[in-house]
Amino acid sequence: MIKPVKTKAQIREEIENQIQAYLDLGGEVARFQPGHSGRDSNEPLPKPPHIERNPEPQARTPVLSEIQAIEARRQRKKAVPNRRRRRDSEKKTLLTDDFGEPLRWITE
Fold this sequence. Notes:
The protein has one domain (8-107). 30% of the residues lie in helices and 10% in strands. The protein contains two helices and two strands; from the N terminus they run ααββ. The chain has helices at 8-24, 64-78, and strands spanning 92-96, 102-107. It has a two-stranded antiparallel ribbon with strand order 1-2. A hairpin with a 5-residue loop joins strand 1 and strand 2 (102-107). 0% of the residues are buried. The model has no long low-confidence stretch (mean pLDDT 83).
């Protein structure tokens, strides 16, 4: 079952209804002068929280044993089992009809 998709007009109408319900219950919307900012103009921009200046060096966790285990598993996967080789006399050839449609395999 497909979820019904709302149109932009329906979404706008819902938002308008929610705003009107808020105002009818006594809610108030504060008005500001155009161009007025919430920050003081002399205040520098806040720094992003994920960027640290000169962070203290952290002790590193040794992972050499984990890397060696991963490499060992990788080397085991690369080993291909020996395949049984066909003799030259067991070579199979596709037999086709006059139109190129495959009929059967024959051994030569």
